[in-house]
Design goal:
Shape: extended
Structural class: alpha+beta
Number of strands: 2
Number of domains: 2
Strand order of the largest sheet: 1-2
Oligomer: single chain
Order of helices and strands: HHHEEH
């Protein structure tokens, strides 16, 4: 039995969220609760990036996905100032992505 979606649950995030729940649990959400869940979890998918590269890589031991996102940094100034370890980790990850794709 498919859960009955509230009238305001027409957006893709809410549909995907409710589809992953048991039908009785999905039917118990109020529109206000769904809006709160979307506010907390849905925002991470709402940002557009200048670079958005998503690929699946098949290796002998399994399939993996690689995601490279890039764009203007709009975070607060308190989070700025990565040290040399951050840059080395970034460059290592970037090199691994390039070699895998």
């Amino acid at each position: 039995m498919t859960p009955r979606l509230p009238a305001d649950a027409s957006d893709a995030f809410t549909r995907r969220f409710l589809a992953r729940l048991r039908p009785d649990v999905a039917a118990s959400f109020t529109p206000d609760q769904l809006a709160a869940v979307q506010l907390v979890f849905g925002m991470r998918y709402a940002v557009d990036h200048a670079v958005d590269l998503r690929r699946t890589v098949t290796l002998p031991w399994g399939r993996f996905y690689v995601v490279v996102l890039g764009g203007r940094d709009r975070r607060s100034q308190a989070r700025h100032g990565p040290g040399i370890r951050h840059w080395l980790a970034f460059l290592t990850g970037l090199a691994a992505c390039v070699l895998l794709v």
